[in-house]
Predict the 3D structure of the following.
Amino acid sequence: MALTIKQTSFLKEEPGRLPDFIIIGGMKCGTTSLHYYLNCHPDISMSREKELNFFIEEKNWHKGIEWYQSKFTGNAKIYGEASPNYTYYPNWQGVPERLYSTIPHAKLIYILRDPIERIISHYVHRYADGRENCSITEVLADFENNPYNPYVCRSRYYWQLEQYLRYFPSSNILILTSEQLEHFPQKTLQTIFRFLAVSEDINLNNYQKKLHKSIYKRRKNNLGNAIAELPIMTKIDNLHPAVRYNLKQIIYFPFSAPVNKPQLTSDLQSKLVKYFQDDINRLREYTGYDFTEWSLNI
């Protein structure tokens, strides 16, 4: 008999513990949707807060292990979290080492997408949030000579993966793509369940959901930004991710404008394809995937 998908609830009962698995990235690759999907499984409990960023020294490492453990409470079989910033090398270094020293047997999930589409989605996300005011051409200027470029380094998937392979065996790392999750959700989720050693015999009817699609991104005007600073908005941030996202869409809609997907020049597109060639080829060799669904014709 198939297990029933649990009602997504973040009410916890038992003292905290360390997670069994971590979604390490990538940013704008479907980690929010995956966090939601996995939390629907009756054997899995995801942290209430997505992106705990505990293993990043510049963020929450100083809060200590007890703070981290307090995020994983309840009676589930296994626990997990998703922090895409864990694959933001070289800007934030030492993450794999800290993770391994704390949870040496952790299983890691790394979800990827077309590297160039990820860059565009990342840019749209930051522009919509008001954290980016330059054009996409400007933010990618001279990217070949800047390994710290925040848009490009996150799309060098094998380079990010290498940092973890220095500590974790390949058997502890699952690589998948957002395209697989979107087009073959049942097969992809069952692959994840098998990797995590939880029941695959589960009704997946409620798994046909995707959050935070970039086509719905809007940029707040001055009044929208003022509303965002109201104390009551911090309470909304504590709601379930899907509820929080939909509520903010409603609140900010009259005080925002849609963000159009930027188009790359053919020259910039060609430079990016050439730049990623070696990384993608090494990723192909490591995973055995051909990544034919990606736009990079390399």
